């Protein structure tokens, strides 16, 4: 699985202007069973997306489609989950 951290490099007003198309992008990949979870950082300096273990080139293509590419930098880390609390056991091997 991948953890993708977004960090805004533009003012939050510019982020807000792209929020609806960003949510539509998130919905498309949740519906495609690619994204596992997503949310805002607190304080609101960016966000995070958990992504299933897909080909990295495909992930890069998906990230390039995000409207937030105009306002955020992306830091992608591949994680191999080997242990999880029972409530998150389904994440092992994703």
In words, what does this structure look like?
This protein has a 4-stranded antiparallel beta sheet, with helices on one face. 31% of the residues lie in helices and 28% in strands. It has a single domain, classed as Alpha-Beta Plaits (2-Layer Sandwich). The chain is of the alpha+beta class and 94 residues long. The protein has 3 helices and 4 strands, in the order βααββαβ.
Based on DSSP secondary structure assignment, what is the total number of beta strands? 4
Spatial sequence of strands, sheet with the most strands: 2-3-1-4
Helix content: 25-40%
Assembly state: single chain
- Which fold name is given in CATH as the topology? Alpha-Beta Plaits
Question: What is the distance, rounded to the nearest whole angstrom, between the alpha carbons of the first and last residues?
Answer: 6 Å
CATH superfamily: Dimeric alpha+beta barrel
CATH architecture annotation: 2-Layer Sandwich
Q: Structural class, from secondary structure content? A: alpha+beta
Shape: globular
What is the domain tally? 1
Radius of gyration based on Cα positions = 14 Å
């Amino acid at each position: 699985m991948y953890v993708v951290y977004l960090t805004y490099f533009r003012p939050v007003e510019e982020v807000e202007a792209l929020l609806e198309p960003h949510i539509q992008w998130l919905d498309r990949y949740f519906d495609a069973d690619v994204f596992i979870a997503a949310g805002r950082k607190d304080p609101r300096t960016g966000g995070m997306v958990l992504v299933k273990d897909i080909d990295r080139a495909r992930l890069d293509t998906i990230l390039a489609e995000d409207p937030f590419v105009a306002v955020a930098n992306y830091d992608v880390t591949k994680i191999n989950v080997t242990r999880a609390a029972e409530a998150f056991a389904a994440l092992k091997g994703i």
